[in-house]
């Protein structure tokens, strides 16, 4: 007996594969767009054997200084090292005080502590989450030797007021611009307004290396010269050491990668800004505290951070839907065990503490598609609806 097609039992349709997760960032997608350029640049370093500092680092330093609008740029091995050296050049010494914020990654205050100085905290502004200018002056004492604002999540702090205060009181301002590559305040580039600007090129940053790297920008020629010495064992000339120095040199491979990626940074930033604007429009009616781009500031959206009092529940719902999120940052610095000696207590800096307890970062990266973003928005809307329904 011959079976014809209509006699055969129907085959079950294969189940459609679930959509891949939406990552909070996608460095592999970025790498695929610049792979040939990067490999060519790395090959040049390998063939030249200029593995530490060298021409690729020098070329990047000049290009990055031009990009942000600074006279000088000094490459180092991390953003933490950048902060450390900048504070030394600002004249901070053991026993001094540096005014900063508790809503930041802890590297901001590590740099203060490495010197033997004391971080003195002020709370953050409830809108921008950057240093609250109104609280700074009353924290100044005779021991205050620097003011260290953080351009958090890609948005500059209130630099006009801080710079004016610094000038009046004779206190240098050091910018923690680790998350603010290409950001601006009233047309001035982040990292170009204080005595020094400190950048991190950790791989996940808007301009990220393929490993650890950082840089300090400054318009002060003497400061730039001292920074170059300090990062290289304080060698004024080889094997002659003028003061206590550090091995904070940038390696040639990182300089090569950063030189390639800097050429694409404007395009990537515009993509971030478009996606952030799209989030703000699509999430506007949801019960979330959304981030704000303050007037006169150019936000580069290193992170898109929303606030919700049931943050952990919302994140769990998003994770179940294949949406990755982040926490930046869940414990403010003043409540970290490492700084217990400062004797701060919950309630000392209520705005920073609220941000820490409620914040979560949504996926945002230059290669993100509208379809991926729409999945995030839909999943977040569903999670917030369930959250409302589950409330007693």
TrEMBL record:
Gene3D superfamilies, per the entry: Aspartate Aminotransferase, domain 1 (3.90.1150.10), Type I PLP-dependent aspartate aminotransferase-like (Major domain) (3.40.640.10)
Domain of life: Bacteria
Short name of one Pfam family: DegT_DnrJ_EryC1
Membrane-spanning residues: none
Residues annotated as catalytic: 205 (proton acceptor)
Enzyme type, top EC level: transferase
Residues with PTM N6-(pyridoxal phosphate)lysine: 205
GO molecular function, one term: transaminase activity
E.C. number: 2.6.1.90
Keyword Electron transport among record annotations: no
Keywords: Aminotransferase, Pyridoxal phosphate, Transferase
A GO biological process held by the record: polysaccharide biosynthetic process
Family affiliation: Belongs to the DegT/DnrJ/EryC1 family.
Protein name per Swiss-Prot or TrEMBL: dTDP-3-amino-3,6-dideoxy-alpha-D-galactopyranose transaminase
Source organism: Aquisphaera giovannonii
Taxon lineage: Bacteria, Pseudomonadati, Planctomycetota, Planctomycetia, Isosphaerales
Designated gene of the protein: fdtB
